[in-house]
Design brief:
Structural class: mainly alpha
Shape: globular
Number of domains: 3
């Protein structure tokens, strides 16, 4: 829920303040550094909050539960073995919103020992699942940012509907569904998608007849990033 991710906000604010202070110091000396830190802290906080807000733990858990067995590191392991690593990956992405995985890995490795709970995985084994989960959040956030900037230019956009409440759930549904229905065209999956929308839409006021256009847009944007024509629909 909005405002429910203080870790993402706090870490983003801290990193943003450092960047802002550097910028302000270069422009206006000590006073500029103070102002820059304040502005950078706000911007960084919003960045961390934005990544954290985009994560639905229930959806992430369901995705990996259904797909973990396809990953090369999952051989001879159950989902319960890997679940703590996946969870650590999606939670950590918000904490380190301004860093890539390689830059953050030392901190992540240290944190794993405090986070792993009953997991028997050493970091050398856990990190592959952590990285998979981290990268999935990164990709979803990039798609979310794209549609936030562009949704109002699409022919199905209707004034009076907001991005966060109405359109974002449809775009995220399309992103997730393109992965969970890999190998099917949108048209082949549409009946299933329509049924699933009512359980997925949250606060969105969009009926499926409206939501499906945004869902299809997001689906095709995911598929267009893959080599070839994965679902053989011409996109």
């Amino acid at each position: 829920a909005p405002g429910a991710h203080p870790v993402g906000t706090g870490v983003g604010a801290a990193s943003g303040a450092v960047a802002g202070a550097a910028l302000g110091g270069a422009v206006g000396g000590p006073v500029g550094a103070v102002v820059g830190a304040a502005v950078g802290g706000v911007a960084g906080g919003l960045a961390g909050k934005g990544v954290a807000e985009g994560v639905n733990p229930t959806a992430e858990d369901a995705y990996w539960r259904n797909n973990y067995s396809k990953r090369p590191y999952a051989a001879n392991r159950s989902y319960d073995d890997l679940a703590p690593a996946y969870r650590y990956g999606w939670e950590s992405r918000g904490r380190y919103a301004d860093r890539n995985f390689n830059d953050a890995e030392n901190d992540l490795q240290h944190g794993w020992e405090q986070t792993k709970g009953k997991s028997q995985l050493a970091w050398s084994d856990a990190k592959h699942a952590v990285k998979d989960s981290w990268n999935r959040v990164t990709d979803r956030t990039a798609h979310d940012n794209y549609w936030r900037e562009n949704h109002a230019t699409r022919p199905y956009y209707k004034a009076g509907h907001t991005y966060d409440d109405d359109y974002a759930p449809a775009y995220r549904y399309g992103y997730d569904s393109a992965h969970t229905h890999a190998g099917r065209t949108f048209d082949q999956a549409e009946n299933d998608l329509q049924h699933g929308w009512e359980q997925t839409k949250g606060k969105s006021k969009l009926a499926w007849s409206d939501a499906k256009h945004a869902t299809k847009d997001a689906w095709h944007r995911v598929e267009s990033a893959l080599p070839g024509d994965a679902d053989r629909d011409g996109y």
